[in-house]
Amino acid sequence: MNAVSIIAGNTFREVIRDRVLYGLVVFALMLLFLSLALGQLSFDENLRLSANFGFAGIHIATIVLAVFVGSSLVSKEIEKQTILTLLARPISRSQFILGKALGLMSVLLVVAFSLSLILSIFLFLLDFSFTVEYLIAVAGVLFEAAILLSIAIFFGSFSRPMMTVIFTVAVFLLGHWVDSLSYFVSKSDSVFFRFVGTGVSYLVPNLERFNWRAAPVYATEIPLTEVFNATLSMVGWVLVLISATMLIFRRRDFV
Amino acid sequence: MTQNKVVEVSGLVKSYRSPMTRKKIEALKGVSFSIYGGTITGFLGANGAGKTTTIKCLLELAFADQGEVSFFGKAGLSNEAKSKIGFLPERPYFYDYLTGREFLVFYGQLSGRIAKSDIATRTQNLLERVGLAHAGDRPLRGYSKGMLQRIGIAQALIHKPEFIILDEPMTGLDPDGRHEVREIIREVASQGTAVFFSSHHLSDAESLCERLVILKKGELVFEGRTDHLMSQVESTWQISFQNPKALSGAPPEIAVATTLDELQTQIDRLRASGSVIRDVGTKKVSLEEIFIRMAFDPKSESGR
Fold first, then answer.
1. What ipTM was estimated for this complex?
2. Which residue of B has its CA nearest to A92?
3. Which residues constitute the domain of residue B264?
4. How many beta-carbon pairs below 8 A join chains A and B?
């Protein structure tokens, strides 16, 4: 077993044994059950309401996990000085970062797929017609979570957990607003606003491009090229952010 | 020195910026020393002398501004060198969600030096060696400070290292625990491992260490054999005498002489005053006294 998979395995165990995860999973399960109840309130759209609410539950749980656990993933190791014994072993700092990121990404994968499996059972009982879009929608949630996790790890490598959460939440909010921002920029006469707006739209990932949650609910098709481009974009962002984190981490003193 | 040189540190310089004032603080000012295989080397210095900074620079947990370190005859800290090093940091905090056994297996796997099939046996042996066999399956969050120190020592030894660095290994241990750790240190050194440990317990350093490295304010003030250091410092003499003017049954008084000449003068003076010399004995200077002189006396800048 190489160092990356050993660290990833230990990170997976760390998060799985953390009570925060269980609190979050219970919260998501409550949302899923609530989605069933809310569906019953609707006269005509009960299935769509349940599916919408269910996907929102999976989205919130996965994003909160990526942002809040990801923010303290590296800084906790530095604060508690557990990193000292780890880096004294024959592993590089890049392997450490990669291992931590992969460990939490595996947790995100398990949580998102477990919750979507539970939701699919609920929806199956309500005679929901499943298409491949259901899986693509879950993948979209995971792609967004992977980018936000990389952002949290990037900021977490040089700032305190609270600041990291604030920065990452800011990117999350801006990331869902990039399309509107680009629209306003195109309509604006202000050179300054156009300059800043264009800069922000390039610096912040467009998270709305991973939002396919409406497609399975309203039985619309997602073009494969769209999925392919979004996947490339996710891989690009994750690679750039994790590489930047490794670069920052390479010569950092642990005093 | 016939033993093989395991580590050679030459001209280590490290400075930090104070987080508050941004003032430059020189933590290490050209520190050089060597560590030899099968030898226990004590690393001494007052708080803030630069011991932990030196250890962090050795392991590249902090990067020195200048200077070179070579391990096992090769310059720099390669992964191959790291696989032969065991390290226990000061005030160790470990993954408290792991059990003692999982913790040792994790570090055993990371070392890349022991076969997967041997890790379980090695873990069990070490748990027994550090007296934690009963607690091996309990999470570390339930361990006392002393137990954490013991499991920390076990993780430093899990891969049978050729060089171990122990930063304050006696901290948090009761007298039994300290005795146990001393025995472990002697045992691993007798197997050829180079041991480098910093400690505030100078009696431990005096009884354990063949060699000493002493820092003062980021500078090396002594490097060499412990017995050489002890012999460099002259002993003192204690003269026990009975004062003729003292009440009968009063205990003898003590006079101290620091040189042979002073001893003769003191004896002559006491005899002239009618005192009865009961006993003259030498008093060996302890490492603690020598250390205090070196670390705090502005005159003793160099003891090399």
1. 0.86
2. B79
3. 234-284
4. 77
